[in-house]
Specification:
The complex is a heterodimer of chains A (308) and B (366).
Chain A (H helix, E strand, L loop, with lengths): L2 H8 L1 H7 L3 H41 L10 H8 L1 H34 L2 H12 L6 H12 L4 H8 L13 H25 L3 H9 L4 H29 L3 H6 L7 H10 L4 H32 L4
Helix pairs in contact in A: 3-14, 4-5, 4-14, 5-9, 5-11, 7-9, 9-11, 10-11, 11-14, 13-14
Chain B lengths: L10 E10 L2 E11 L4 E5 L6 H9 L6 E6 L2 E2 L11 E3 L11 H11 L4 H14 L15 H13 L5 E5 L7 H18 L2 E6 L2 H7 L2 E6 L2 E6 L1 H6 L4 H6 L4 E8 L2 E4 L2 E2 L11 E6 L4 E4 L7 E13 L3 E8 L4 E7 L2 H4 L8 E7 L4 E4 L8
Parallel strand pairs in B: 3-8, 3-9, 6-7, 7-8
Antiparallel strand pairs in B: 1-2, 1-4, 4-5, 9-10, 11-12, 11-14, 12-13, 14-20, 15-19, 16-17, 16-19, 17-18
Helix pairs in contact in B: 2-3, 2-4, 3-4
The structure holds adenosine-5'-diphosphate and magnesium ion.
Organism (chain A): Paralimibaculum aggregatum
InterPro entries (chain A): MetI-like, MetI-like_sf
Protein name (chain A): ABC transporter permease
Chain lengths: 308, 366
């Protein structure tokens, strides 16, 4: 640096001339960020109080043994006892089956709805959403009434000559699945439907123009484009199923024991908060892992551009 | 190596009619498109251009009419069997496939083997000057590149007819100008019958072998660009393509009179007593002194002089109140000497450029 330049840089007047108002603008920027933080703070506080603190507490309690000291016994019990493995297996099995059946019923239903004129489709969507307006418990007990030995379903089936003996439709896996699919279906149909509605009709026109008949166009263009919606819907259903309580408890008749029910019995019967918390932690962590893997999977698919 | 289709196909459209409620999107359109020509459908927005193209592609079912590709009646044939290439207005490239996947799609549907498919994709990409872009995702492309991919996808299966619906409307002006020339070259190279839709008259004049001007679902004029521009058949065409002022004239015996003075013309005047003379700004000239017999002179008063860089506009008012505009190139030495507002001038129009059309009364209200 020449002496003249040093002199220039050292002069505050020269610096101000080169970058006018820089200091004032920087101060305004800081003030703005602070104001934003101030606006966000009630929400942050709420999240902290109702989410972060309870989850941290859950973690803490899960490491407290029966004698009140720090121990890993709650987790050890889960690994050592066969019954726990069985419960986790049942939970995943029911969740997988429910999700699968929901896809089989919900995807065609969403497709059908998406092809209707928007007004009619909206009316039909209301009927899909109608179950949300009645209580979960009421709906579950309604199924109990319908599916029991002398219930409507069995009566109709026998009088129509479809089967002879009353079928065992409730207090088992079948009943649980029927109830859970009924309750979960809207969670699948809604995202799939909106993904399908968002598919530009012109893609299908382009496919037809390039030589694809309706069936080819569906499988090569429509189905792949609806996949993100199907994926989102399936994920929601699966995760909701993992923690589901009421329906398996009522319709499973004690034969279908899922993690949530074990948590309840640990508290109600054994008043063992540590064991219940440990189950909750494992369920939470599993769910997070599934979500993480799923997010990875979707990102990879996007990177590959799909199609091949 | 060029991809020359086995043959191009002529298209015959007869009495094509489509109504939406009270709107006639197509009103008894008859149009013969020659084999291998570049024909442009030109008209204002809402005139029925897209509707006609969608009828050709099979996506819009007309109320009535006949459509033949070559000798085959196709009006009731479903779109996927018509075997024509199409570039959609928003390109409609499949977002879940790569560039190569998009272009290979029509080839896969036609059961073409992998090796040949790949070779043809590469060739199509080179044809549209996108060599090496096969692996890109669609959302990684610019507007101009998407346009080229859509074009490659439309020509890769060597259709004998190519349809394009305003393919350049989303591009900026410079790119649009370049693509117009490129599309024109590509058409010369491939030779398929091409139907091109635009509302941009300059684009139509630049690219087409012939232009079909349509308005309110009706064919207004069909002809080569020069014919459409120099000999418009009616007021709508003269007004829509280029700028023009209209001067009412009358037929009296064998003469055409304009404000009492005879008007020299070279082409025969249309039928009828009441006619309009078309005055294009760039065909008018500034006269000084003597008037040669082949020039029609119009005395006027300058109302405005506008400098536009390469050219200037002079607005002038005739005695009867008609506003005329004259455009000429700006020459450094003479611009300063041009008559300013208020000056009396004489505008001249060569008999060759004096075109008469019937005065159908349409568009009379300003
Ligand atoms: N699906 C439709 N429903 C109702 N009216 C339509 C439909 N498609 C086109 N039209 C009408 O038909 C006329 C021609 O439309 P279009 O062919 O899209 O014109 P352009 O492509 O020349 O702008 C317009 O008046 C338009 O409003
Ligand atoms: Mg259009």
């Amino acid at each position: 640096m020449s002496p003249a330049e040093t002199a220039l840089a050292a002069s505050p007047a020269a610096a101000a001339a080169a970058a006018p108002n820089a200091e004032g603008l920087a101060r305004d920027g800081r003030a703005e960020r602070l104001a934003l933080l101030g606006l966000a703070s009630p929400a942050l506080l709420l999240v902290l109080v109702i989410l972060v603190v309870p989850v941290a507490w859950l973690f803490y309690v899960s490491f407290i043994g029966a004698d009140g000291s720090f121990s890993l016994e709650n987790y050890e019990r889960m690994i050592n006892r066969k019954s726990y493995a069985r419960i986790f297996y049942t939970t995943f099995e029911i969740s997988f089956l429910t999700t699968g059946i929901c896809i089989l019923i919900g995807y065609p239903l969403a497709y059908f709805l998406s092809q209707l004129p928007p007004r009619v489709a909206n009316l039909c969507l209301i009927t899909v959403l109608l179950p949300f307006w009645t209580s979960l418990l009421v709906r579950t007990y309604a199924w109990l009434v319908l599916l029991q030995k002398s219930g409507l379903v069995n009566e109709w089936g026998i009088s129509a000559g479809l089967w002879e003996e009353p079928l065992k439709l409730v207090h088992n896996t079948t009943g649980t699945l029927i109830g859970m699919v009924h309750i979960m279906l809207p969670f699948l149909v809604l995202p799939v439907y909106s993904a399908m509605r968002a598919i530009d009709r012109r893609y299908l026109m382009a496919a037809a123009n390039l030589g694809a008949g309706p069936v080819r166009a569906f499988w090569t263009v429509f189905a792949p484009l609806s996949l993100p919606g199907l994926f989102a819907g399936s994920l929601i259903v699966f995760v909701l199923c993992l923690g589901f309580f009421v329906t398996p408890a009522v319709l499973g008749g004690g034969k279908v024991i899922m993690v949530s029910m074990k948590i309840a019995s640990n508290i109600e019967l054994f008043v063992n908060w540590g064991a219940a918390s440990a189950l909750g932690v494992v369920l939470l962590v599993t769910t997070l892992v599934i979500l993480w893997v799923a997010a990875r999977f979707v990102a990879l698919e996007r990177l590959a551009g799909g199609g091949h | 190596m060029t991809e020359r289709p086995a043959s191009a196909l002529p298209i015959t459209i007869r009495a094509m009619t489509k109504t939406y409620g009270r709107v006639h999107a197509l009103d008894q359109v008859d149009l013969d498109i020659r084999s291998g020509e570049f024909l442009t459908l030109l008209g204002p927005s809402g005139s029925g251009k897209t509707t006609l193209l969608m009828v050709l592609a099979g996506f819009t079912r007309p109320d009535s009419g006949s459509l033949k590709f070559g000798d085959t009646e196709v009006i009731r044939m479903p779109p996927h069997r018509r075997d024509l290439g199409m570039v959609f207005q928003n390109y409609a490239l499949f977002p879940h496939m790569t560039v190569a996947g998009n272009i290979a799609y029509p080839l896969r549907l036609r059961g073409i083997g992998r090796a040949e498919r790949e070779a043809r994709v590469v060739r199509a990409l080179e044809t549209v000057q996108l060599g090496g872009y096969g692996g890109r995702r669609i959302d990684q492309l610019s507007g101009g590149q998407r346009q080229r991919v859509a074009l490659a996808r439309a020509i890769v299966f060597e259709p004998r007819i190519l349809l394009m619906d305003e393919p350049l409307s989303a591009l900026d002006k410079k790119l649009r100008d370049r693509m117009q020339i490129e599309l024109r070259h590509l058409h010369e190279q491939l030779g398929m019958t091409t139907v091109y839709v635009t509302h941009d008259q300059r684009e139509a004049l630049t690219m087409s072998d012939r232009i079909a001007v349509i308005d309110h679902g009706r064919l207004m004029q069909l002809g080569a660009p020069r014919e459409i521009y120099d000999r418009p058949a009616n007021r709508f065409v003269a007004d829509f393509i280029g700028e023009s002022a209209f001067l009412p004239v009358r037929r009296k015996g064998a003469e055409i009179l304009c404000a009492g003075r005879p008007l020299a013309t070279e082409s025969p005047a249309p039928e009828g007593e009441k006619l309009l003379a078309i005055l294009r700004p760039e065909r008018l000239q500034l006269l000084d002194g003597s008037v040669p017999p082949e020039i029609n002179a119009f005395p006027a008063t300058v109302s405005e002089l506008v400098y536009q860089g390469d050219s200037f506009l002079m607005a002038a008012r005739l005695e009867d109140g008609t506003e005329l505009t004259l455009r000429d190139v700006v020459r450094r030495d003479t611009f300063a000497e041009l008559p300013g507002p208020g000056s009396a001038v004489t505008l001249g129009l060569h008999a060759r450029d004096t075109v008469l059309i019937p005065d159908d009364g349409a568009g009379a209200a300003p």
